[in-house]
Amino acid sequence: MSKPQVLQMGAYPEWDMPPLEARFGMQRYFEAADKALFLSTFGPQVRAIATRGDLGANAAVIAVCPKLEIIVVNGVGYDAVDLEACRLRGIRVTNTPEVLNGECADLAVGMALALTRGLVGGEAWARSGDWAAQGPYPLQKRFWGQRAGILGLGRIGMEVGKRLAGFGMQISYLARGPKVTPGWQFVADPVELARGVDFLFVTALANASTRHIVSKAVIAALGPEGMLINISRAANVDEAALLEALETGALGSAALDVFEGEPKVNPRFAALKNVLMQPHVGSATFETRKAMGKLVLDNLVAHFDGRPLVTEVVL
Ligand code: 8YV
Question: Does residue 310 sit within a domain?
Fold first, then answer.
């Protein structure tokens, strides 16, 4: 029996490919020189799309795959998948939740600590000879014991909170409603949340209702001593307002793992010393990416074996 044909939207780590190729016909869309021709050639045969959180599957791609049954996302974020197109056609969607919670939370807190204590500049100060030439590195700000807000208290947000509690932080959060927490304060409004904290961590899933939830007003409320940390999606932040606030000093600093138009990043960010930039590496460790790749495989195999999916997204 011929293998089910799978449209692979982007590269996966090399260790993911042998088990996928053993079961499926992996059609590498991302390697095609003429992508329109590739889709017209393979789209009619495709029964599954294997994609990534940053790549998704838009309506145009879904439309040229009339036999499409399932879209598996290597990533927890499925905002780049056209869910309405999937709902209309009964196409199933899976993602890779839970396995990356700790990794993403580590990066969020690590970025905030590094930026607060000037670790990037300190490394350059020690390595460049500035220490010997100019003396002690300039004093930085305290991280532990400050006030932290978590915008979106989902699985990743909870892990961020646990880590911040270890730093003795006073924690408040915004969610659809109050959650069971170890004494953290629920705040229903993002501006009010931002006004009361020194650090604002953005961990909310990205969808139409969260677009620009970090608005100009939220950024202003966070203020000239505040730090914004975003490990979710760039769409959750008004990036134009963020850049203006960082350039004028209306916002103190930002630690960002996601950007509009990534991997092409607005060059204005690179000119700013009050920004720590990371190249969308929240889940990017060997251990977590292996776990994510296994979920992609397990969901595909379960679907075509007629078994329940492992991590199905409720559409
Ligand atoms: C990567 C992510 O973009 O989990 C997500 O949603 O954004 C990241 O893990 C990618 O999906 C990893 O393949």
Answer: no
Residue spans of beta strands (DSSP E) within the chain? 5-8, 25-28, 46-52, 70-74, 92-94, 147-151, 170-174, 185-186, 199-202, 227-230, 253-256, 275-277
My answer on whether 76 and 180 are in the same domain is no
What is the crossing angle of helices 286-304 and 101-116, to 10°? 150
What averages of pLDDT result for each successive group of 10 residues across the chain (315 residues)?
A: 94 98 98 97 98 97 98 98 97 98 98 98 98 98 98 98 98 97 97 98 96 98 98 98 98 98 97 98 98 98 98 95
Please tell me whether residues 58 and 140 are part of one structural domain.
Answer: no
Structural domain for 148, as ranges: 101-277
Q: Does residue 100's CB lie within 6 angstroms of at least one atom of ligand 1? A: yes
User: Locate tokens 């060997």: which residue?
Assistant: 286
Question: Does 311 reside within a domain?
Answer: no
Q: Is the CB of 61 under 6 A from ligand 1?
A: no
Q: How far apart are the C-alpha atoms of 220 and 201, rounded to whole Å?
A: 15
52 in contact with ligand 1, CB cutoff 6 A:
yes
Residues 173 and 162 sit within 8 Å (Cβ to Cβ): no
Do the beta carbons of residue 49 and residue 86 sit within 8 Å?
no
Ligand 1 center from residue 140 Cα (angstroms)? 32
Look at the chain and report how many structural domains it folds into: 2
Whether residue 73 is contained in a domain is answered as: yes
92 with 107, same domain?
Answer: no
Residues 28-56 as b/e (b if ≥16 CB within 10 A, e otherwise) read bbeeeeeeeebbeebbebbbbbbbbbbbb
Catalytic positions, written as ranges = 233, 262, 280
DSSP conformation letters of 268-279: HHHT-TTEEE--
Residue 154 is assigned to a structural domain of this protein: yes
Contact 293, 13 (CB under 8 A): yes
